[in-house]
Amino acid sequence: MCHVIVTCRSMLWTLLSIVVAFAELIAFMSADWLIGKAKPSSSEEVDNRTGGAQEPYRPTLGIYGRCTRISHMQFSRRDTLCGPYAENFSEIASGFWQATAIFLAMGIMILCTVAFVSVFTMCVQSIMKKSIFNVCGLLQGIAGLFLILGLILYPAGWGCQKAISYCGPYASAYKLGDCSLGWAFYTAIGGTVLTFICAVFSAQAEIATSSDKVQEEIEEGKNLICLL
Chief location of this protein (predicted)? Predict the structure, then answer.
């Protein structure tokens, strides 16, 4: 018989697992990993809201995508265009970024799988006498290692020609040049830290769902068990 067991700790672990997976996925897909050096606007470009000259635009560069401005001379304005610069994996700007993409993709796939499974831990707490929480915690730890490897290798690619075109001639491995780090990089780091927190917290979720109080309510014949 299926017993639906919901505890404060197990629910918090499930929510954190889902948040971490989405955060890493969004960061990976974003083009805001590097913020390039400012492109000065021409004197003819006017901000429609203020009537003054527009602020210099800073293009952004991701692992496989980028955002930049395209001029429309006939209208004396510029549009921001975002999209992948690489049509296939081999066109990613650096071998280090290719390795980063592989490690991050593997970590994110594991995190998404765990996030999906975590939803069902309310009904199924073990498979083949193995605690789902412990298995998911182990997988989250492995995913965290993949994410760390990807984030360590990523700065090694700052010396590639694509990064130099955005960050200036002084950009090199682990040196930003005229660029700065975007929100996607910091999100990926924060998600990695939360991944290990989730891996540790999975043990608490397992303890909460197998506590004496839960066992007592199961023996009383309850199918829906909610504990704070």
Answer: membrane
